[in-house]
Amino acid sequence: MRAVVVEEYGVVPVVRDVPEPSPAAGAVVLKVEATGLCRSDWHGWMGHDADIVLPHVPGHELAGTIAAVGAGVTGWQVGDRVTTPFICACGSCEQCLEGNQQVCLRQEQPGFTYWGSFAEYVAVPYAQVNLVRLPDELDFATAAGLGCRFATAFRAIRQVGQVTAGESVAIFGCGGVGLSAVMIAADLGARVIAVDTNPSALKLARSYGATETLWASPDTVQEIRDLTAGGAHVTMDALGSNDIVQQALQSLRPRGRHLQVGLLPSGVQLDVSRLIGQELQWLGSHGMPAHAYPEMLQLVAQGNLKPADLITRTITLDETPAALAALSNGTTPGVTIIKP
Question: Which cofactors are named for this entry (predicted)?
Answer without folding.
Answer: Zn(2+)
